[in-house]
Each structure stands twice: as C-alpha cells, then as structure tokens.
Amino acid sequence: MISLHMEKTFAPGRTGEGFHLNVRLDLPSGKASIVLFGASGSGKTLTLQCLAGLARPDRGRISIDGEVLFDADDKIHVPARRRRIGYMFQDYALFPHLTVLHNVAYGRGGFFPWRVHAAERRRALDMLDRFGVAHLARRYPSQLSGGQKQRVSLARALNAAPRLLLLDEPFSALDPLLRLRLRQELHGMLADLTVPCLIISHDPEDVDIFAQRLVLFHAGSAREVREYPSLRAGHASTQACLCQLLEANAAPRLPRAC
C-alpha cells in the first residue's frame, strides 16, 4: 500500500497567492498504472516530489508497504536516494555533461562519471537495449531527439531497480505526432513492468490509455475515483466522463474536454 497522508503550505508571495496541499490517499502498491489528473497548479507534481523525497511535507506521514518514508511527528525523513523510487521528470532532466550510458548508470548511484564498473556498464547497456537505444550509449543529451530522451530517461529511472515508478507529464515536451506514437510505446513498456506506476497528466488521452486507477486533483486536494471504470463505461468518451467528475468536484472545466 502506498500511503500518502500529508500537508504542505506555501505562504503568499509577491502575487499575493499562497498554496496549501492536503492529500489523503491510500493507493495499491501492486502492479498498476495510476493517473494523477488535474489542471496545472493543482498539486500533482508536488505530491510526487514529496513521495520521492525531493520535497518535504510540513505535516503528515508517507509509507510504502509499511516502510515509513516520512513522519513529521517522529521526525523521519528518508533521503530520496534511499527510497528506491524511479522518477522520470517532465523535462527528462538528463545530465548534459554525461553520455547516455553514464546517465543511465547514474540511476544506480555511486560512480565517478569517467569510470563505470564493468557490471554496471553491462546493466546500463542492457537497459538501453530494452528500450531500443543502446546504439546511442556514447552520445550526449544534446544529440538526442525528444523521443530518444524519453527512452533514456525511462531507462535511467528503471535502472535503479525501483519499487515504484513516477512519471511527470512524460509527453508534454513532445510534438503531437510523436506524442501519439510514444504514448502507445510507453503503454507497451509499462505492461512488462512488475512495479506500480504513477503518471501525472492533464490530458484526457493519457487517462484513456493509462488509467487503471484515477486520482483527481483540484486546488491542492486529491481523491481516488474508485468508481472510474464503471463511470467511464457509461460515457461515450473519456472527456465526457472527466467533465462530469470535474464538475462534481467544483473544478474548472477543461478547455479541450468540455
């Protein structure tokens, strides 16, 4: 079970607007594809950052399968490097000064950029081969296309042998035609994984393809829509279903969906 019971508050800045994240979620830790859906600024990325250990909540508790990763009362905050969580960033966040091979090997941690042990080199190459980009091992990120960067970033996240995979809007940086193709390819890749995957999106098409389970975000709050499969079956399209859910949560309408 992935248990997220936490709060984090940002004081008003120069714009006069603050933000309060209040999440109470208990999600399955078995193989599942879970989409975190909502408008930009609703708290999706911050939630993943807290889960991964890249941000620290003000209050609450986070655990995976009973292992506590964060507990404000008991002053527990496990560092990101020890959480065994793979994170694929929205902009892929590949290190520009490292080759593709070194970027992927970095997922295992503890190496010098100019020296990768033979076993780690083989592991990284095997992972790159899994995603069809082993021939790019000696290139640098600036020499890759958007689709190639996506594959390398996913290979790096999985090379760490994570127990949980987090994908933050994996298609937002791609052009429409490439997005369509890579969405289908990623769906096939995830089908072969044995770990749960949390995917951030505000695109109904991502929900249509990836959402085995759906979490709806609005203005810093979140709820799992456990009845989503039956609701989706009762609508002509995913967009129509999401519109009904957003309206029920008093959320702003989606420009393209409603």
Question: What's the layout of helices and strands?
Answer:
Blueprint: E1 2-10, E2 19-27, E3 33-37, H1 44-52, E4 59-64, E5 67-71, E6 76-77, E7 85-88, H2 100-106, H3 118-130, H4 146-159, E8 164-168, H5 176-191, E9 197-201, H6 204-210, E10 213-218, E11 221-224, H7 228-233, H8 238-248
Protein traits:
Rossmann fold; 258 residues; 11 strands; alpha/beta; six-stranded mixed beta sheet
Question: Summarize this, please?
Answer:
The chain has eight helices and eleven strands. The chain is of the alpha/beta class and 258 residues long.
What is the count of DSSP helices, taking H or I runs of 4+ residues? 8
Strand order of the largest sheet: 7-8-9-3-10-11
Q: Give the distance, in angstroms, between the N- and C-terminal Cα atoms.
A: 34 Å
CATH superfamily placement of the largest domain: P-loop containing nucleotide triphosphate hydrolases
Number of domains: 2
Main sheet record: 6 strands, mixed
- Assigned CATH class of the largest domain: Alpha Beta
Percent helix, as a range, is: 25-40%
* Structural class estimated from helices and strands: alpha/beta
Uncertain parts: 251-258
Shape: globular
Please compute the radius of gyration using only Cα atoms. Answer: 19 Å
Mean pLDDT: 84
Provide structural commentary.
The protein is an alpha/beta fold and 258 residues long. The chain folds into two domains: 2-84 and 163-248, Rossmann fold, CATH 3.40.50.300; 99-162, no CATH class. Helices cover 32% and strands 23% of the residues. The protein contains eight helices and eleven strands. It has helices at residues 44-52, 100-106, 118-130, 146-159, 176-191, 204-210, 228-233, 238-248; strands spanning 2-10, 19-27, 33-37, 59-64, 67-71, 76-77, 85-88, 164-168, 197-201, 213-218, 221-224. The protein has a six-stranded mixed β-sheet with strand order 7-8-9-3-10-11, with helices on both faces. It has a five-stranded antiparallel β-sheet with strand order 2-1-4-5-6, covered by helices on one side. Strand 5 and strand 6 (76-77) form a beta hairpin. It is globular, with a radius of gyration of 19 Å.
